[in-house]
């Protein structure tokens, strides 16, 4: 009961602080730091970013989490935590209602004005790097380790994942033939959102020894069925939330359009359609080496079918 009163008191104090707050924003948002009385391991933490949440849990500090965003779905035990919503559309009062001491976010989190106002209430706001690579993962682990005051654990986790990544790189060799892959993140009745270069999806394909069939443009872009046919993919990778699987994709009416397009490509056989959970492949958390190896092995198996 005392803890509830304390949380409520913190919330009220911060709401009062907001009433007199200027909404101006300082450019150094990601460096907001506040000295708090609690030790790092005891601080009430809201995490925005599935990969960052996985790092916190892998370091053994899941107990400090009081809220997460919608991309934080692993480990399954974080499902019990209150959600602060979509990372790019955060609610100030929604976060403050959890009475956090600190908020750890990815660089895509926002709106910026919400994070600025949040820091002005006395909540520590820390921003992680968005380098979607093995090196970026190691850097974020060390940054989180500093925030949680557990550098030794962070170093141990970094060393383990570095060794795993080296082993995966030695296993993942460029396939004898260059197999063209399209990475589909979503569909509409007439178009498909696919990954080009300079994307997390392209990074994963490259790590897995696969060639992106849409390497002729940057970012994520909608393409038509004609564009899929022109790309002539050997494989298709579908990223779906919560691993809905192939049946979940087939339940989408637009799948019929895609299926018709694929029938005119080397990826016509369903065995060459690979389905993965979005955050497993694109979370860039501690599961990254495993995800790379799994994608590589699934691709080889599909090609041999």
Plain-language structure description:
By secondary structure, this protein is of the alpha/beta class. It has two domains: 2-153, Nitrogenase molybdenum iron protein domain (Rossmann fold); 180-304, Rossmann fold (3-Layer(aba) Sandwich). It has helices at residues 2-19, 50-58, 92-96, 112-120, 134-147, 151-171, 200-207, 225-231, 245-250, 254-262, 278-282, 288-304, and strands at 45-48, 65-68, 102-105, 124-127, 180-187, 191-195, 211-212, 220-224, 235-240, 273-277. The strands form two sheets. Strands 5, 6, 7, 8, 9 and 10 form a six-stranded mixed β-sheet that branches. A four-stranded parallel β-sheet has the order 2-1-3-4, with helices on both faces. The chain is globular, with a radius of gyration of 21 Å. Residues 1-8 and 15-37 have low confidence and may be disordered.
Please describe the structure with a list of short key phrases separated by commas or semicolons.
305 residues; alpha/beta; Rossmann fold; 6-stranded mixed β-sheet; 4-stranded parallel β-sheet; 10 strands
Helix and strand arrangement:
Blueprint: H1 2-19, E1 45-48, H2 50-58, E2 65-68, H3 92-96, E3 102-105, H4 112-120, E4 124-127, H5 134-147, H6 151-171, E5 180-187, E6 191-195, H7 200-207, E7 211-212, E8 220-224, H8 225-231, E9 235-240, H9 245-250, H10 254-262, E10 273-277, H11 278-282, H12 288-304
Parallel strand pairs: 1-2, 1-3, 3-4, 5-7, 5-9, 9-10
Antiparallel strand pairs: 5-6, 6-8
Helix pairs in contact: 5-6, 6-12, 8-10
């Amino acid at each position: 009961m005392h803890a509830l009163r304390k949380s409520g008191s913190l919330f009220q104090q911060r709401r009062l602080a907001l009433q007199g707050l200027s909404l101006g924003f300082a450019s150094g948002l990601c460096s907001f730091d506040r000295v708090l009385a609690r030790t790092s391991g005891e601080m009430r933490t809201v995490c925005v970013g599935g990969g960052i949440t996985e790092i916190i849990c892998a370091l053994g500090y899941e107990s400090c989490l009081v809220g997460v965003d919608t991309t934080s779905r692993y480990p399954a035990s974080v499902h019990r935590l209150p959600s602060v919503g979509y990372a790019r559309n955060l609610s100030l009062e929604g976060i403050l209602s959890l009475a956090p001491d600190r908020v750890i976010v990815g660089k895509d989190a926002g709106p910026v004005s919400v994070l600025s106002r949040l820091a002005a209430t006395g909540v520590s706001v820390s921003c992680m790097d968005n380098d979607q690579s093995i090196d970026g993962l190691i850097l974020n682990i060390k940054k989180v380790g500093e925030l949680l005051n557990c550098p030794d654990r962070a170093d141990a986790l970094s060393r383990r994942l570095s060794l795993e990544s080296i082993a995966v790189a030695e296993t993942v060799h460029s396939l004898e033939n260059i197999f063209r892959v399209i990475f589909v993140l979503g569909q509409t009745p007439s178009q498909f959102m696919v990954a080009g270069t300079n994307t997390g999806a392209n990074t994963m394909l490259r790590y897995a020894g696969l060639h992106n069939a849409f390497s002729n443009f940057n970012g994520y872009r909608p393409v038509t069925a004609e564009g899929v046919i022109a790309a002539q993919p050997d494989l298709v990778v579908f990223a779906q939330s919560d691993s809905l699987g192939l049946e979940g994709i087939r339940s989408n009416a637009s799948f019929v359009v895609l299926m018709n397009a694929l029938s005119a490509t080397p990826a016509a056989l369903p065995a060459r359609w690979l389905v993965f959970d979005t955050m497993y492949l694109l979370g860039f958390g501690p599961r990254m080496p495993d995800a790379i190896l799994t994608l590589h092995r699934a691709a080889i198996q599909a090609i041999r079918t």
